[in-house]
Protein 1
Amino acid sequence: MKPDPIAECSQCARPFMRRTTLHRVCSPRCAAKSVREQRKAEKADFKRRQEAAKPRSQWLKEAQSAFNAFIRTRDQHQPCICCGQWSSGESRGGDWDAGHYRSTGSAPHMRFDERNCHRQLKRCNRYGAGRAVDYRIGLIARIGLAAVEAIEADQTLRKYTSDDLRAIRDDYRARLKANKWA
Ligand SMILES: [Zn+2]
Ligand SMILES: [Zn+2]
């Protein structure tokens, strides 16, 4: 079958003289653009397949790390929740953690509760067993006794599917970005 000699460029929609049925763009410029678009589509497709293969544990990790990064930025103008001190700015990986009042180990259902998580010096969070007593005092000062008691009494089970975790991750990434620009 002979190709229709006048065809529309798949990139810019301009009519051009077609030589074969495989000829779909009007110019080298549109050909390069078409290649770029194809590569982009392939990359997106690869990412989609990679995400589909991700185990739930990986989604959990990514969601938690996005949540924690958001908390550290949210509290950037606040001192450590438990000791009221500021960072000395000496440690290389940064001095701050997002410290959970009820830990993700013993209360995993509270892992994404924003009232339950505050910026905390690493030395307090990691080496002082979270300094639970001081944390509680600091927490009451920030959110009030009623909210602290609500956190302590909360045993509501929360189940997160991979899709939930992806949504949580993306939400906190977006909010982190918004915070950084604020
Ligand atoms: Zn064109
Ligand atoms: Zn502290």
Protein 2
Amino acid sequence: MRGGNGEVKQQPYWGDTVVACAATPAPLPASADVVVIGAGITGLSAARALARRGLSVVVLEAHTLGWGASSRNGGMVLTGLKLSAGTLLARYGRELGRQLYQASLDSVDLVEQLIRAEGIDCSFRRSGHLALASKGAHYEHFARAADLLARKFSHPVRLVPRGALRNEIGSGIYHGAMVDELSGGLNPAQYVAGLVRAARSAGALLHERTLVERIERLGPRRRVRTARGTIDAAEILVASSGYTGAATPALRNRLLPIGSYIIVTEPLTEALAQELSPRGRMMYDSRHFLHYFRLTADRRLLFGGRARFVPETGRAVLESAAVLRRGMLTVYPQLHDTRVDYAWGGTLDFTFDTMPHLGSMDGYHYALGYAGHGVALATYLGTRFGERLGTTALPLDPFTQIPFPGAPLGLHVGKSWLLRCAAAWYKILDCIQ
Ligand SMILES: Cc1cc2nc3c(=O)[nH]c(=O)nc-3n(C[C@H](O)[C@H](O)[C@H](O)COP(=O)(O)OP(=O)(O)OC[C@H]3O[C@@H](n4cnc5c(N)ncnc54)[C@H](O)[C@@H]3O)c2cc1C
């Protein structure tokens, strides 16, 4: 796609930077201490931690290992949750709000520790993140947020006024920014490949192309029915995120699957890359339909956004690529003649309170709802679950303490008109706020 035309690879760019880590086909074991459904960051982190405790763990993945959002994302390892610090305090009170925010900081540390402990080569760097104010009022909001983070969470962030933005970004469209130096970036496919190796070497069994169709209760144990046979399990972790389906209908009804799309340019010259992002930060703007962008290790610009409020389909990728390219040129007109090499989509897992949740229902455990912060938080919730299952520490985790609401008025999430209404609402908010 140069100047809007040309061939674009419709696949995640990250896939071309990693050797696929396929599972060797093997018969399913008859039973396991824990069955994990979904081989993304949540499932693999949990499997690694569980297996390190000596439990027998089987991970079942409907597609290939890491097929879901975990290998398709922007690779931003972000502090904070999707909800602002102020909303966390107002909604959950001072102590629980503080614990939830602190967990987000701990999650970034955990990613770094895990990468180091397992020797995962995934270009992880604490490059910091840059939240960009799309409107003047949003910068004023940043100033209030920075004050709150310093006072209530002892977490310093730095404001960058409009006049000083050139040190941070080669774009003139923003009204200021907020820098958080604790965030980082990585190559998500390489990270997932490392988690696969780590879970395997800890002793977990990983099975791909194994769709879980149903979970049945057998007294205190569970039977997991798959397209390839059954496994009995003492415990089950559902780690299927935005791809949660018919096997766990009650959980599916508490999730809003949202399509997010990414384009990646051809490699840029060193000078142009330096101009676009002098400090190599992870960047995103302050709108509801936000854009997020960063440089890759080989100096391409990755530019993503919620170009459509529906789960991805083949055609949606190309349509979204065109929308995203226009968005990219609004931020960086200097990329007008730059080719787009890759375009793809993936599904985000939003919940109705925009919070991650760790808990149990219908005889299984779940960990999901990361709302675009899953690289760090899925590592955190998966690992915490794996380290604490069966101990008294698990129920104390702050993410188990918050209520998990379903759709408002009991509406069924599968209805596309509900997603369209939500999309229209957020578009209105972007215009008026
Ligand atoms: C385009 C995009 C960009 C993003 N960018 C960022 C970012 O920059 N930073 C960030 O922190 N987060 C980002 N996210 C979010 C982040 O990627 C996710 O929150 C995180 O990867 C979720 O990991 P997971 O392991 O819970 O789920 P996934 O990685 O989605 O894995 C779930 C797996 O479950 C499998 N599955 C589902 N049902 C079944 C079943 N019945 N049987 C067997 N297997 C099943 C699926 O096939 C899938 O592989 C982004 C997401 C997308 C889509």
